[in-house]
């Protein structure tokens, strides 16, 4: 693997083929709760701690997991392994006590790696679309009777905390590159949806981002599905050139799964595919060209694992996606309100494209965006200059911290300025507060419009805020 002092190194694996006593620090978090649930379902004795109760902790208690609110060093006594996420500081009293008493301590990635070691692991990685692709692939496999286990970073029907236990050896998991998890997983198979610029705070350079995906592909022992159309996936394709493990998807004629056309319909999208030279039609309730590509990636892996093309396309017709991925939330003044997790330029461009193609969008496309993380906007504000070009009106609010430290002078207005410099005639509104956003949108929205609000912070409540305001 390429050298980088910043990238995570593998930890010694824990043998999870026998029952273990596992303690999960921060068990209510979005990365730890599915891991805890799956470990418990596999027969391990699981306990956990968190700073607050939530619907997630209540659900986990219902699965028989003992959860303590607050952190206490005594909680790690008598356990075999303590696991934690990147969000937990090294000073945490449970981690400190475990290390002082020689209890094994593993980052979340270490426990995932240990699970991968004893399963037929199918990783789904990539800068964009991995949550939807992971969920779609799992749905196809379940529908085909393969009964996989799964860990995914989103809310999906049938997986209340982002986890599913299946009785087969197949384990589908979303692989996060942002904290080095992808760097340490011993995967049987791998999907790489695409590669883009992000997480430079961890990687340092974009070359290291690309190298991370190359290293993961080379380390994978089985099938590697990659995006033939994606410019920044070229390093992956070149590294596996001539390798029979490589299976591609995309628009190109020589893709194993070729997307021939995508049509927007009242109920979703109709995708014409060629799968290993055989024509197929997939009807999906999802929207957008980007989701057609996610579906193509999922089908490429599913068919490599033995699912027939017919069964895969049939399953896609009943896959309703992931919460906060182009989710229609309601109406305001005769306009459709859509919520989306898009927070990077390519994702925003794709979401706006899907919004414009929506059959009910007969008026303006209004794009609302909440930038995320101070260090990301400090490094990348200028890259947002062109991704809103297809919107008729753009409303930008202030940065959502997502736990990052405040940086003086870094505000959402940097994105406003980047758009204005590249597109002087663009209709861009700076709305720093939530009430400012509600006022700005309520003033201009009209019947036939579609308003899509985007970001990975608390912008998800904006459609509710707007609908609760007084209609103009």
TrEMBL record:
GO biological process: peptidoglycan biosynthetic process
Reactions listed under catalytic activity: UDP-N-acetyl-alpha-D-muramate + L-alanine + ATP = UDP-N-acetyl-alpha-D-muramoyl-L-alanine + ADP + phosphate + H(+)
Entry's Gene Ontology molecular function annotations: ATP binding; UDP-N-acetylmuramate-L-alanine ligase activity
Domain Mur ligase C-terminal: 324-457
EC numbers on record: 6.3.2.8
UniProt keyword terms in alphabetical order: ATP-binding, Cytoplasm, Ligase, Nucleotide-binding
Location in or out of the cell: Cytoplasm
Pathway of action: Cell wall biogenesis; peptidoglycan biosynthesis
Mur ligase N-terminal catalytic domain ranges (all copies): 22-116
One Pfam family this sequence matches: Mur_ligase_C
InterPro entries cross-referenced by the UniProt entry: Mur-like_cat_sf, Mur_ligase_C, Mur_ligase_C_dom_sf, Mur_ligase_cen, Mur_ligase_N, MurCDEF_pg_biosynth, UDP-N-AcMur_Ala_ligase_MurC
Annotated Gene Ontology cellular component terms: cytoplasm
Residues annotated as domain Mur ligase central: 124-302
Cited NCBIfam families: murC (TIGR01082)
Protein name: UDP-N-acetylmuramate--L-alanine ligase
Source organism of the structure: freshwater metagenome
């Amino acid at each position: 693997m390429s050298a980088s002092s910043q990238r995570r190194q593998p930890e010694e694996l824990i043998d999870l083929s026998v029952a273990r006593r596992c303690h999960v620090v921060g068990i209510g978090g979005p990365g730890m709760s599915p891991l805890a649930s799956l470990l418990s379902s596999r027969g391990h004795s699981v306990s956990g701690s968190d700073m607050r109760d939530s619907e997630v902790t209540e659900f986990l208690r219902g699965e028989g997991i003992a959860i303590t609110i607050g952190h206490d060093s005594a909680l790690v006594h008598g356990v075999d392994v303590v696991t934690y996420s990147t969000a937990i500081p090294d000073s945490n009293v449970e981690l400190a006590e475990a290390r002082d008493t020689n209890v094994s301590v593993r980052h979340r990635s270490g426990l995932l790696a240990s699970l991968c070691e004893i399963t037929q692991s199918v990783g789904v990685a990539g800068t964009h679309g991995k949550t939807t692709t992971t969920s779609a692939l799992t749905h196809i496999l379940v529908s085909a009777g393969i009964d996989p286990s799964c860990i995914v970073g989103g809310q999906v029907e049938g997986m209340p905390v982002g986890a599913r236990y299946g009785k087969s050896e197949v384990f589908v998991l979303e692989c996060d590159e942002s904290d080095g998890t992808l760097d340490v997983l011993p995967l049987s198979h791998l999907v790489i949806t695409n590669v883009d610029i992000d997480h430079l705070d961890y990687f340092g350079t974009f070359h290291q981002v690309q190298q991370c995906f190359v290293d993961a592909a080379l380390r994978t022992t089985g099938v590697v599905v990659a995006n033939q159309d994606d410019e920044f996936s070229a390093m992956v394709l070149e590294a596996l050139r001539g390798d029979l493990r490589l299976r591609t998807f995309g628009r190109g004629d020589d893709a194993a799964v070729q997307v021939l056309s995508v049509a927007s319909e009242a109920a979703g999208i109709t995708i014409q595919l060629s799968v290993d030279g055989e024509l197929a039609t997939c009807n999906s309730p999802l929207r957008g060209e980007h989701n057609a590509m996610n579906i193509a990636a999922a089908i490429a892996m599913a068919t490599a694992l033995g699912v027939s093309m017919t069964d895969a396309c049939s399953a896609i017709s009943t896959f309703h996606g992931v919460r906060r991925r182009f989710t229609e939330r309601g109406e305001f003044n005769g306009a459709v309100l859509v919520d989306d997790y898009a927070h990077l330029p390519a994702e925003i461009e794709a979401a706006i494209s899907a919004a414009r193609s929506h059959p009910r969008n007969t008026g303006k496309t209004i794009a609302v965006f909440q930038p995320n993380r101070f260090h990301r906007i400090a490094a990348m504000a200028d890259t947002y200059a062109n991704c809103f070009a297809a919107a008729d009106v753009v409303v930008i609010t202030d940065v959502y911290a997502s736990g990052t430290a405040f940086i003086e002078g870094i505000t959402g207005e940097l994105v406003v300025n980047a758009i204005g410099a590249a597109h002087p005639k663009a209709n861009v509104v700076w709305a720093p507060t939530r009430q400012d956003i509600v006022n700005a949108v309520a003033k201009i929205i009209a019947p036939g419009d579609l308003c899509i609000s985007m970001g990975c912070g608390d912008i998800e409540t904006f459609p509710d805020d707007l609908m609760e305001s007084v209609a103009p």
